[in-house]
Amino acid sequence: MSRLEQQLWASADILRGKMDASEYKNYLLGLVFYKYLSDLELRAVYEEANGKPEEYPSRDIQFSELTDWYNDDAEELKNTMRRKLGYFIEPQYLFFMLRNNASKYEFQIDDLQTAFIELSRQGESFNSLFDDVDLNSTKLGSHAQQKSTTIMEVIKTLDEIDLFGYEGDVIGDAYEYLIAQFAAGAGKKAGEFYTPQAVSKIISEIVSIGQEELAPFHIYDPAMGSGSLMLNIRQFLSNPEKVYFHGQELNTTTYNLARMNLILHNVDREQMRLNNGDTLDADWPTDEPFLFNAVVMNPPYSANWSASDKFLNDPRFERYGKLAPKSKADFAFLLHGYYHLKDSGTMGIVLPHGVLFRGAAEGIIRKVLLEMGAIEAVIGLPANIFYGTGIPTVVLILKKNRANRDVLFINASNEYEKQKNQNTLRQQDIMKIVDTYKKRENIVNYAHLANFDEIVANDYNLNITRYVDTFEEEEQIDIVALGREMSDLNLQIKQKETDFLALLDELAVTNETKELIEATKRIFV
């Protein structure tokens, strides 16, 4: 665990005994986000006054620079920061000042509440972002002073984190670490909004293949959770600054989490289009752009949905003749995403194995997809790599207008590192999956490229074990050699027994040892 991770985790200890992880994550992640915005403002003000330095001075000096400008011409400072950052936090509400007040035990929770309200009023990007940070909750304390004390301690601990003092994407790394830890600790409920980085990397790299030079690049996640699955695409594109993120999320808390996550990853407001809504109930987006270079998704597995007959006339589903069952919306999510994929794009979706072989309506939908050549690859992942569920999952890769209808099957279910509570895909496991996908070749006990006739012969069943035989034949036993070895061992044993009996005969026989010696000899007779 890095120093950064230790500091982040220590910040959670203050709230951990008061509420469960699904609740205290809202406080901690919200405050981390607010600290980032505050510290970023301090730096932005210093840069405006002095240019970008090789090394930033202490926040005391940065704050002094801000207050000098504020006292001299507050309106100019506000307008400058709103143009540069899209927001302005009043000096008394900056995280730095809240921390100073906490050090002097002068912090009042109402100040933080006012700070959240003021920021939320500064445009759509911040509207309702802090609604889940409930500063009035009795779990923080029975009265205002207890609540202030609890949050004061959290602020003091969080302020020890230097969000800019590390190489690389420290904001993103810190945020993803927190999300992962809360998801692991809170089980299924928290795991819903987080896709492990290893799985994100597999999907991101695969959907970017052949599209690396595209700019602008539009990516869409109809069940975006924290947004992490979309964000990974930037590391595989030549123009990461020209990626446009489109995402929808039903859960309002998780939707706000995604908004924070994209801002923390320095995504410009003009390059994110996020919606809080039900992906299956009403199609979104319906205005341009509504077709995307990449569609990625890790939807809730086998979720319920209405499956109303009205959807048989919905352009997302009508060509398949059947709807996904009410109790298993897996194919509904898949078809929604596929509908929004450009003809030249690639889609990657994580689903439970049941979509590969279940019959009835799902079997009919699967058959149509295969006849269209839509399913390009089926990648089986190890069990217990997702937070909150131990079931094995599969990644389906889909394309439009393919020249043929073959399907590549990859069985990666046995290649992972087992950890205490979770199985993990190592870097070599990720590379092997992606390299195998690129080469599209047979690998014994790992991958098989099945032509369409083979799939038809299997009645459109895509169960991976029908195509990739993972059974390893045991080494043949040489019976003759084994017989000789057993005979030699018997001779050696007999010789040892003879030697042992000879040693017994050399022992002095007394009244005490006579009975023991005779009993020992009878064992070998």
From TrEMBL:
<dbReference type="InterPro" id="IPR029063">
    <property type="entry name" value="SAM-dependent_MTases_sf"/>
</dbReference>
<dbReference type="InterPro" id="IPR038333">
    <property type="entry name" value="T1MK-like_N_sf"/>
</dbReference>
<dbReference type="Pfam" id="PF02384">
    <property type="entry name" value="N6_Mtase"/>
</dbReference>
<feature type="domain" description="DNA methylase adenine-specific">
    <location>
        <begin position="168"/>
        <end position="475"/>
    </location>
</feature>
<dbReference type="InterPro" id="IPR022749">
    <property type="entry name" value="D12N6_MeTrfase_N"/>
</dbReference>
<feature type="domain" description="N6 adenine-specific DNA methyltransferase N-terminal">
    <location>
        <begin position="4"/>
        <end position="157"/>
    </location>
</feature>
<dbReference type="InterPro" id="IPR003356">
    <property type="entry name" value="DNA_methylase_A-5"/>
</dbReference>
<dbReference type="GO" id="GO:0009007">
    <property type="term" value="F:site-specific DNA-methyltransferase (adenine-specific) activity"/>
</dbReference>
<keyword id="KW-0489">Methyltransferase</keyword>
<protein>
    <recommendedName>
        <fullName>site-specific DNA-methyltransferase (adenine-specific)</fullName>
        <ecNumber>2.1.1.72</ecNumber>
    </recommendedName>
</protein>
<keyword id="KW-0808">Transferase</keyword>
<dbReference type="GO" id="GO:0032259">
    <property type="term" value="P:methylation"/>
</dbReference>
<keyword id="KW-0680">Restriction system</keyword>
<dbReference type="InterPro" id="IPR004546">
    <property type="entry name" value="Restrct_endonuc_T1M"/>
</dbReference>
<dbReference type="InterPro" id="IPR051537">
    <property type="entry name" value="DNA_Adenine_Mtase"/>
</dbReference>
<keyword id="KW-0949">S-adenosyl-L-methionine</keyword>
<comment type="similarity">
    <text>Belongs to the N(4)/N(6)-methyltransferase family.</text>
</comment>
<dbReference type="Pfam" id="PF12161">
    <property type="entry name" value="HsdM_N"/>
</dbReference>
